[in-house]
């Protein structure tokens, strides 16, 4: 599907982002391991979560969906069954990697595949620690790629340093650690999103965090199911935060958004760039900090980002590049080589597509340099089959002159199926 978006005269109104994708994956997977029934409210829509739910069902978990409410009847640690067919994680690395942690401990064979993009993403980083824990796990391409074959085993705890900050690999290890004998310690170069740790703690598991180091001590009692109300996804909210800041006539309020400090780097960067952004009505919902965010047209200045900030905004970097194109001076993004192995090569794809619209942007091996101040012109763009690219281009189109065509725009369905409808609603044309 192609989507045509014209530059708009103003952006006004309130928007509520969909439920957080990362927390939704974890809430349904961890409750599947628990003994008993849990309700999950405001469960994230989209194909990525659909993949997690169907894989869990194939493993014997009872899941009832009613709108955005899910009822999960946990299998308990011992209640999973061998899937009758290959499990398909679709486009979702979170599904594949977190489930691999669970499957590594099951006494049966599982085969896990994904779409073309997921089958090109690195898996040795997952295979290595799970093997150290005792799992038998193999991948295509000399253990570098999916499909994966996993023959679960009795696992033992490990002391592991992740070579790169990755919440997916950290979570896979922590999930495997729930089934292992002995303590597991994971240390990252910088802290990544900590939703797994928060949920596990609320479910009665002994998990201690000390900055980038997490220690999990498993016990034999079953995990307690936990009802969760999922906050809005800051990675989806971010599209409207950037739109509000770079559009010359904007006033947007983004409601009910998770502002967990391991995810809120985008707020820090926007403030650093001079955005008129207010964090309002801060509260805690289901163990996660939540707020409403008000943003309006701003005069942005360029900035430099890198280091431990990167894992706190990893999925928002294409948007930060777009903000850089509207800022005074130069914006430099470093230490973000992980972007090369996301749903697309997000450095290459962002540089290519924003250049087509007239942005002055260059790629670096681990980031981008954007010189702000050039006016954007509508153009003919591709999403590279990447939901975050499609949405970034949708926002760029709102501030470009003329019309932009975005090919393969339906890919927003991975995380934010109503994105184009929300965009239309906030757009007021003269
Ligand atoms: C996610 C972790 C991040 C992020 C992805 C979701 C998660 O990936 O990019 O969109 O839910 O754990 P990495 O763990 O590979 O950095």
List how many beta strands DSSP finds: 24
Q: Average pLDDT value?
A: 97
**Integer-rounded radius of gyration:** 21 Å
**Percent in strands:** 25-35%
Which class best fits the helix and strand makeup?
alpha/beta
Q: Which word captures the global form?
A: globular
Classify the helix fraction into a percent range. Answer: 25-40%
- Please state how the strands of the largest beta sheet are arranged side by side: 16-17-15-2-24
Flag low-confidence runs: none
The number of helical runs is: 13
Q: Which ligands does the model contain, each kind named once?
A: shikimate-3-phosphate
For the largest beta-sheet, the strand count, sense and barrel status come to: 5 strands, mixed
What is the CA–CA distance across the termini? 27 Å
How would you sum up this structure, described in words?
The chain is α/β, with parallel strands linked by helices. 30% of the residues lie in helices and 28% in strands. The protein has 13 helices and 24 strands. The strands form six sheets. It has a five-stranded mixed β-sheet. Helix 1 runs parallel beside helix 3, helix 1 packs parallel to helix 7 and helix 3 packs parallel to helix 6. The two termini are 27 Å apart. The mean pLDDT is 97.
